[in-house]
Structures are given as structure tokens and as C-alpha cells.
Specification:
By secondary structure, this protein is mainly beta. The protein is built from 2 helices and 9 strands; from the N terminus they run H-E-E-E-E-H-E-E-E-E-E.
Length: 222
């Protein structure tokens, strides 16, 4: 019984002492406000360095190309050629092209056998040269790896030239487009589409002959 009273007495004493201690702590507060300095934490950011291939100051470009050309009525045949360009500004350029191919046989010649030939072998040679004006429509970038970025451009071209086919020269209009990837400050890869349009009466009636070309090639800047 005495032990129970002792425990109760100790609890009452503790409740009495706590308010007194709190009052003493509050009496020590003199109203001074302590402002702790703001600590600025700078993020640990490492900038990623990238290598970007671009043309420096060169404005002349020359190279070779190869691909296929669909000669209207004479099938699709291999095509080879050379090209040269002058970049007048960042947007506009002039381009000269020379290409060589050889026409195949028409469906009429194939159906009627080898004895029927619309063209002699020497007249099947398809040669052209042209001068085009180009415009870089969509300059951009191609991210090859984490640290390598290549400049690119989608461009349009149009112009005129001459086509030697079936023993005659034909004034030719040329329209097309292309995609250029700058591999280094002196080397580019190109993918080109062209339509060579000229009038012909080879099959007995006059019409516009559309000859579609698709080529790829490499050029160097100098």
C-alpha cells in the first residue's frame, strides 16, 4: 500500500516540476531571432561534348553517282554519272550533272522476239547533261551516336538540259529532290530523285516522256 502511495507522489511531483522548467526556459528567450544562412547546393552537371560534322568555308562540290533510271517504254536500267555544284549561299546552289545509261527492249520488241527492233544497239544509249538550281528546304541534324551529330539537308532542284537518245537530241526539263548527309568537313553522301521530261515521237505519236532517276553518290568539298 505504501508503495502505491509513493508512486503516486512521484507522478504528482513530476507534473509539478515540468511547468516550472518550461517557464524557466521561456524566461531565457530575449526575443532575438536567429536567422540561419541559406546553403546553396550546386547540382553536379557534366556537360556532354558532341562532335558535329559541318562544311567550313568550301563552296565547290564534285563527285560521282550511280543508280537506276526508268526510261519510259524501255525499262529500268543502270545509270552512272558525275556531278559538280557551286553553293552560292547557305540556301541556294547550282548543280551540273552528266549521266549515262542504255535503254532496254520495249514490251513490243520482247513479245515479237529478237527479230523486231525499234532501235539499233547504237541508238539505245541514253546520255544527258543538265544545269539545275537547288534550294535547301529543310536543313537538319542526324544523331548517329551519343557524341556524333551529322548535318543534313533535304533540297529541291529544277532546271534544264539535253538528252541524247534514239539518235536525236532532246531539250529536257528536269525536276527533283534530294537528301544530303555531311559526313565530314569535306565529304558528303547524297540520295537523289530526278524526272527528265522531253518530247518524243519514237513510238508513232508525240508525247512527253518521263524518265525517272534514283541515284546515290559521294561528293567532296574543296
Amino acid at each position: 500500500m505504501a508503495s502505491w502511495f509513493q508512486q503516486l507522489f512521484l507522478i504528482l511531483m513530476a507534473l509539478t516540476v515540468l511547468p516550472v522548467q518550461a517557464q524557466q526556459d521561456s524566461s531565457n528567450n530575449d526575443g532575438t531571432v536567429v536567422i540561419k544562412p541559406i546553403q546553396i547546393i550546386e547540382p553536379d552537371i557534366t556537360l556532354r561534348k558532341t562532335s558535329q560534322a559541318k562544311i567550313d568555308d568550301e563552296v565547290f562540290e564534285a563527285g560521282v553517282f550511280a543508280g537506276v533510271i526508268s526510261i519510259e517504254d524501255f525499262g529500268t536500267q543502270p545509270l552512272y554519272g558525275v556531278k559538280a555544284s557551286f553553293h552560292a549561299t547557305e540556301d541556294f546552289f547550282l548543280q551540273a550533272n552528266y549521266g549515262v545509261s542504255k535503254a532496254g527492249r520495249t514490251s513490243y520488241e520482247t513479245i515479237n522476239g529478237n527479230g523486231v527492233n525499234i532501235l539499233a544497239d547504237g541508238d539505245r544509249e541514253f546520255r544527258y547533261y543538265d544545269l539545275l538550281v537547288g534550294y535547301n528546304l529543310f536543313p537538319g541534324e542526324a544523331f548517329i551516336t551519343r557524341n556524333l551529330t551529322l548535318n543534313t539537308a533535304f533540297y529541291l532542284v529544277a532546271g534544264a538540259g539535253n538528252t541524247r537518245f534514239a539518235g536525236d537530241d532532246h531539250f529536257t526539263l528536269v525536276i527533283g529532290s534530294g537528301y544530303r548527309v555531311i559526313l565530314s568537313d569535306w565529304l558528303t553522301w547524297n540520295l537523289d530523285y530526278r524526272d527528265h521530261i522531253f518530247k518524243t515521237e519514237l513510238l508513232g505519236r508525240e508525247k512527253n516522256s518521263h524518265n525517272i532517276e534514283l541515284t546515290t553518290g559521294l561528293t567532296v568539298f574543296f
